[in-house]
4-hydroxybenzoate--CoA ligase (Thermus scotoductus), 515 residues
Amino acid sequence: MVELPERYNVSTILDRNLERGLEEKPAVRWAEGELTYGELFRRVCAFGRALRALGVRREERVLLILDDTWAFPVAFLGAIRLGAVPIPVNPLLHPEEYRYFLEDSYARVVVADEAALPKAQEALKGREGVRLIAFAADPPEGEAFRLEELLQAHAGELPPADTHRDDMAFWLYSSGSTGRPKGVVHLQHDIPYTCETYAKHVLKIQEGDITFSASKLFHAYGLGNNLSFPYWVGAGTVLLQGRPTPERVLDTIERFRPTLFFTVPTLYNAILNHPGAKGRDLSSLRLCISAAEPLPAEIWRRWKETFGLLILDGIGSTEMLHIYCSNTVDALKPGSSGKPVPGYELRLLSPEGQPVPPGEAGDLWVKGDSALAFYWHQHEKTKRSLQGDWFYTGDRYRVDEEGFYWYKGRSDDMIKVKGLWVSPIEIENALMEHPAVREAAVVGVQVEGLTRIKAFVILKEGYSPSDSLTRELQEFCKARLRPYQYPELVAYVEDFPRTVTGKVQRFKLRELREA
């Protein structure tokens, strides 16, 4: 594990690459241009100096409403370099959600790109003393500072703030699948810890790699994929602004030739179903990575058959900053979440806090030094989730005799039918193997006071809903699972309600139980 000095500022992740002689190496590339490590460093320093000129002080918050452009790493690392605390959030939310973030965090500055600028302005109405920085060609005069002009006006080197390795560095808001999003507070030492664990031992990332993450930088997964990990070793990154459709993702891979590709199962599936995908050139990739939701074995097999590439599936969280349990090239079981990443420990406990017998499902707890410090303004939630060195994930897993972890659903997603616990994931994976099914999501619903299993199914092109297909899907599950593990009810839908990272929001499906 990396040994950090007591006084440490994580923005010096860039200084490392200048010291290695990588000043002229492209750090960030996108459709219209690139920035070298030297240029990126200078812009980071200028942004920190600009914040200082605007009156931002140590540990004051800076809200980032930015898509994946060069402005993101500049604002994120520039704020940290000053000793301020950046908070990246999803640029596709509504003004009232940004207003909540502002009120909850007491942010002094908002940085918004052109697409998000009107929503940022709406959120700022009535809030005195909050400055707006626009990454836009023509921001409203008098209402916002233009990012490029600030960088030019405040050019010059900025020494990193004399922060402690255990000081606040940045926040990430949880996806908020239930209730209000929670501010997850991370410290200066958390990013290096993920770089020296997952990035080093699973990705084996090197200076010659080029990363491309279809999952955005504002999310913990994307932040590691396309900022922390490549910058730590001096690798290159590719940024894709806008929606990562299958066509745009495939075009980006063919043009920029990345070696590491990161996305979520939903997009892997969409790419496989995209017309002409099989003929596209993905030969530059040495590894594909999946997280944010379990990767069905069927998608893993189809990707391998189509492109000849391995997908390494794993589990991480905003609270742990990145992946802490993963498949590797040398230890891989399709459908599983792999084994603990070196540097992390896992344990499975009963609801009463006792270790579960071998082979049985239990609540997953994880231990590792990238864990959040606490939830902002959520003292009771912090006490429930953090017990000593251990973090309660809310996921249920079982571990097999070889040490591989198998996802059994969220603790509150498990379905108890006729006195027996049922994992929705097992039924979903079985349904996904049927040739008619593109995606499936399973929940428990109440029918005349009793819990019944209901499947929501998205069909592949060429298939239509019918009673005969429903019966076929039910028998298909019965033949592969235990007799009681089949959907008694089936609804056919065009899509599922999802979080910003693509996870299916089961609680909303339960609200659609009449569909």
Summary: Residues 337 and 512 are 29 Å apart (CA to CA). The domain at 415-511 is CATH 3.30.300.30 (GMP Synthetase; Chain A, domain 3). The radius of gyration is 23 Å. The chain has three domains: 10-186, 190-409, 415-511.
